[in-house]
Write a structure and sequence with these properties.
This protein is α/β, with parallel strands linked by helices. Helices cover 56% and strands 7% of the residues. The protein folds into two domains: 167 residues, Rossmann fold (3-Layer(aba) Sandwich); 157 residues, Tetratricopeptide repeat domain (Serine Threonine Protein Phosphatase 5, Tetratricopeptide repeat), CATH 1.25.40. The protein starts with 7 loop residues before the first strand and ends with a helix.
Length: 337
């Protein structure tokens, strides 16, 4: 632990699209004497929410990793990455956006709402894969030398052990390889092909190349499964989500996505089991409640369907889904409420 508060950094990132580049940044800063916090687990409900925010308050610099796919879910009011960014602005941290894997602000205008719009006005650093070391030197010697205007609040005494445990866990992760970073580049390119151009074949090809480079890349399986699902290839989607869960049994998104495929295949029992497992792993995750609502609706279990849809709307907190709002109105009429 360094004594200089100005050498403290919080790394914010979207695990599903930027886990390796985030880990590489963490490892570089740690190797050069910086005190860095980066959570490598899925966000816990309740108590750890407060610990995460307190770590932003306890650190001078806030580095946010931006890749294709990072900002889309920030439209949800309950999105954790959005909460981290907004809190960093509130606490007047030195906010440094790192742009990786061909991320650009122009393509993400629609997602830069509210406080997030301020990100594009910050001095961002491009981090090309081929010049990673040079970019990190610029980060350390220039971007992390900017002044911090908000007060730095020390970690509360009752949180220090948990914070140390999380930092130790992140530090113990294997050194990131060139193959892993290249695989993440393919993942970002595939994501853009899928989401921006509806190029299913091109996206699947790039996700497959990412998996060839890194056969244990659970996120690539999850994303490729999503493309198979959008194509209507339910068996291909199911196989990919099965493999993602095999690689990472604690990944709530994989269970949620597999639940959706099982529901679409008519396996309501399997779908409900997957949605419930996703909620066990992440009780604040809104999407599984939507899925449960669909399953109970298909069974004409109106009361349970209504409860699930309303829980989804309560958790998501952002712009409500017209589909779910319509279902809630319909079910209330059916139930005479």
């Amino acid at each position: 632990m360094v004594d200089d508060a100005n050498k403290t950094v919080f790394i914010s990132y979207r695990r599903q699209v930027a886990s390796f580049i985030a880990r590489a940044v963490f490892q570089d800063l740690r190797a050069n004497g910086w005190d860095v916090f980066m959570d490598v687990q899925s966000i816990d409900a309740g108590e750890f929410d407060r610990i995460i925010l307190n770590q932003i308050a306890a650190r001078a610099h806030f580095v946010v990793i931006l890749t294709p796919g990072t900002l889309e879910r920030c439209a949800n009011g309950d999105d954790w990455l959005r909460r981290e960014i907004e809190y960093a602005f509130e606490k007047e941290r030195n906010i440094v956006p790192l742009l990786a894997n061909s991320f650009d602000f122009a393509s993400n205008k629609a997602h830069l709402t509210g406080t997030l719009a301020e990100l594009q006005r910050r001095n961002a650093l491009n981090v090309p894969h081929d010049y990673f070391e040079e970019a990190m030197e610029r980060l350390r010697t220039r971007y992390l030398k900017q002044p911090v205007y908000g007060a730095i609040v020390p970690t509360p005494a009752d949180e220090k052990l948990e914070v140390e445990r999380r930092v130790t866990e992140a530090t113990a992760q294997p050194q990131v390889t060139s193959e892993q970073l290249t695989a993440e580049q393919y993942l970002s390119r595939a994501y853009k092909k899928h989401q921006e151009h509806n190029d299913y074949s091109g996206a699947i090809e790039d996700y497959t190349q990412a998996i060839r480079l890194n056969p244990k890349f659970a996120d690539a399986y999850i994303n490729r499964g999503a493309v198979h699902h959008d194509k209507g290839d339910l068996n291909g989607a199911l196989a990919d989500f099965d493999e993602a869960i095999h690689l990472d049994p604690k990944y709530a998104i994989a269970y949620n996505n597999r639940g959706t495929v099982r529901k679409d295949k008519g396996d309501l029992d399997g779908a409900i089991a997957d949605y419930n497992e996703a909620l066990r792993l992440n009780p604040n995750y809104a999407n599984p409640h939507w899925g449960l609502g669909n399953c109970y609706y298909a069974r004409e279990d109106w009361a349970r369907a209504l409860d699930a849809y309303e829980t989804y709307l309560r958790l998501v907190k952002g712009t409500p889904s017209d589909f779910v709002v319509g279902r809630v109105k319909e079910l209330k009429r059916k139930l005479g409420r």
